Amino acid sequence: MGRKIVFFDIDGTLVNHNKEILESTKKAVRELQRQGVYTAIATGRTPILFENIRKELNIESYVALNGQYAVFEGQVIYESPIHTEDLAQICTTMKENGDAYVFVNHEDFKSSETNNAFIQESFGRTKIHYPDVDDRFYEHSPVYQAIVFCEDEQRQKYIQNFPQFTFLPWHSYAADFIPVGSSKAIGIAKMLEHGNFEHGNSYAFGDNNNDLEMLTLVGTGVAMGNALPETKAVADHITTSCEEDGIYHGLVDLGLIQPILQK
């Protein structure tokens, strides 16, 4: 049969809208691990913003930054920094437009300006502290992902004018951007290969537009009940929401764990 592996998105999947891990999720993941199923995280977050979740759930391996950085049991197995020239080009335009931006890598994230209302609003919703300022961060450090903060109309112009990037909105005023062709699926494929996992033994849970490729790639893709319509459309299975024990019910439905919660 071979080992099975389950990848979990974080926001709206492992954690609910209050950024809390449900007790049912903790019990389900522990039971999954007890059954010998390998568990991993696949997220748009930088590793420094989910270390506490990894420790609480005893998960060592992860795909971070929307597939740009992958770690298997403490070893970096894949990394893909954005080309400096591409960053310089879009940063010049964002600055000319008066739009704030944030650079992100595996150990840090820096903003282009202080006290930006869009950064405060979007980061505050996810309970992330406001980053320190360094608008030239990309010139001396690798950047795996960046975030632009603007209205949707302005975002559409970036999408049109910078086809070398894929833009992934996660808030009304915020969108991650990574090189076109990149996705969580790239990092997951690297991990499946590195860990010798068979495709049919791979599973993933997600809810957002940055989970589409991931749910399509794995053997069985599971959309949360709170997932976007387009995410549900590509999933093999739809579970209940992140507020309604969705991880637990999904794992039970797939036969990966037995029912362990009292009704």
Automatic annotation (TrEMBL):
Signal peptide: none annotated. Gene3D superfamilies: 3.30.1240.10, HAD superfamily/HAD-like. Keywords: Hydrolase. One of its GO terms (molecular function) is phosphatase activity. InterPro entries: Cof, HAD-like_sf, HAD-SF_hydro_IIB, HAD_sf. GO terms for cellular component: cytosol. It comes from the Bacteria. Pfam families: Hydrolase_3. NCBIfam families: Cof-subfamily, HAD-SF-IIB. This is Hydrolase Cof. It comes from Paenibacillus selenitireducens.
